[in-house]
């Protein structure tokens, strides 16, 4: 196994853990400062903006990364045209988000705040798409910092407003917009050296980027939808109060998958530059095994103390929802494998696998929610989420077996060689620390 992949994965993993800790602080404060219904609306805005930022990306994050990784000499052309397309797509995405929030019947209760929520779509889209240039060039430091900026604004702003007794739903949404806008401006600053306006407008290049991104767009959209279907259906079938509770327990569980997703981006970044597809797949599998093992330890600990965990992090209004939380945590472990193994396939031009794998998962999630929410409530939505993630994991495992010859046990279970990798990595860390302290 190439230690470079694991080392960079651990670096990004560490950064993402800091981000999740920041998100958790914000999450805990919002859950206590807002009513359950307001928290549900906040979650609805976030879910809708996230899905639309993915949908209107049109696969350009992955397409930009792919072409820059394969044609580094043309990096400026691809980066410039990616930003040119964002100007149009960001406006369309914002309009779509505003319309969806109106259709969700939130305008009567929240008025112009739905517009504030919708405006998040454009900077979220810019941040998402623009990071493709960092991934393609292997600039993981710039990627990490672009992620950190919005969290710094969110944590400091949320804590400050809470201490000043000014954290209302309106303030929370304005702060959300400010955090995304600040991160987007930082990204533009980091990309400024890669822009070449004189290259505009190369329509054949745009068509090439859009055509290549189309497959990525479908698969990534299905990936994001899988976790958001439950939010929309709980809102439609159970109302705002239930949505607030479901959003709370779902986001706590999904934080593990979010961390694993960052490792998936490292795998993708290496994959678009790899010469040997099978070796790249083997590195992805080994990294996924190690990271998921760590996630499993965290998940089991959280499940064992679920009542206390929910009470501490979300408050007493959420503490009784231990069963949905535990079910979602199980689903998240399968989700961790999915978000790390799929990027390797998409980096090798197999993004279409995600369309049918995640598409099948979305179908299971939708059907499961429709059938299970009426008799079981939030437990039904959680079971649907678990089943959907299992279906996706099974599908991706079959692809790895068929294309690369890896057995299911090799993919899913820790192997003896993983321990050797851990020892080798620990040796490198000790050696580096020794040189630092001895001045060598």
UniProtKB/TrEMBL annotation:
Database matches in InterPro entries: Poly_Biosynth_Transport (IPR050833)
Looking at the UniProt record for this protein, which Gene Ontology cellular component terms does it annotate, in alphabetical order? plasma membrane
Q: What keywords would UniProt list here?
A: Cell membrane, Membrane, Transmembrane, Transmembrane helix
Where is the protein found, in the record's own terms?
Cell membrane
User: Pfam families attached here?
Assistant: Polysacc_synt_3
Topology term for the membrane: Multi-pass membrane protein
Organism domain of life: Bacteria
The principal location of this protein is membrane
The protein, known as: Oligosaccharide flippase family protein
């Amino acid at each position: 196994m190439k230690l470079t992949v694991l080392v960079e994965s651990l670096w990004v993993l560490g950064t993402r853990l800091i981000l999740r800790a920041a998100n958790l602080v914000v999450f805990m404060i919002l859950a206590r400062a807002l009513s359950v219904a307001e928290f549900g609306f906040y979650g609805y805005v976030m879910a809708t903006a996230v899905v639309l930022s993915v949908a209107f990306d049109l696969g350009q994050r992955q397409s930009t990364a792919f072409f820059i990784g394969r044609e580094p000499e043309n990096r400026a052309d691809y980066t410039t045209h990616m930003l040119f397309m964002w100007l149009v797509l960001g406006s369309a995405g914002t309009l779509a988000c505003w319309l969806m929030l109106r259709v969700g019947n939130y305008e009567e209760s929240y008025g112009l705040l739905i517009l504030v929520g919708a405006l998040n779509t454009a900077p979220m889209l810019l941040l998402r798409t623009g990071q493709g240039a960092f991934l393609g060039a292997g600039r993981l430091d710039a990627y990490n910092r672009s992620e950190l900026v919005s969290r710094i604004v969110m944590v400091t702003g949320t804590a400050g407003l809470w201490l000043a007794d000014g954290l209302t739903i309106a303030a929370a949404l304005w702060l959300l917009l400010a955090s995304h806008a600040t991160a987007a401006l930082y990204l533009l600053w980091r990309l400024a050296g890669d822009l070449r306006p004189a290259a505009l407008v190369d329509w054949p290049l745009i068509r090439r980027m859009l055509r290549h991104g189309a497959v990525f767009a479908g698969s990534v959209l299905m990936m994001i939808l899988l976790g958001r279907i439950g939010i929309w259906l709980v809102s439609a079938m159970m109302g705002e109060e239930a949505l607030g509770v479901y959003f709370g327990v779902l986001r706590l569980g999904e934080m593990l998958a979010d961390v694993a997703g960052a490792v998936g981006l490292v795998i993708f970044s290496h994959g678009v530059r790899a010469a040997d597809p099978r070796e790249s797949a083997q590195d992805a599998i080994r990294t996924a095994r190690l990271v998921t093992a760590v996630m499993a330890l965290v998940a089991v600990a959280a499940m064992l103390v679920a009542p206390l965990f929910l009470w501490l992090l979300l408050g007493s209004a959420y503490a009784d929802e231990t069963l949905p939380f535990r079910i979602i945590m199980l689903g998240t472990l399968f989700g961790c494998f999915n978000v790390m193994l799929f990027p390797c396939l998409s980096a090798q031009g197999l993004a279409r696998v995600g369309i049918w794998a995640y598409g099948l998962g979305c179908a299971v999630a939708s059907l499961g929610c429709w059938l299970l929410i009426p008799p079981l409530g939030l437990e039904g939505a959680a079971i649907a989420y678990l089943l959907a993630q299992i279906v996706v994991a099974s599908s991706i495992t079959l692809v790895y077996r068929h294309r690369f010859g890896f057995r299911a046990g090799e993919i899913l279970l820790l192997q003896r060689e993983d321990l050797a990798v851990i020892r080798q990595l620990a040796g490198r860390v000790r050696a580096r620390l020794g040189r630092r302290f001895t001045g060598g």
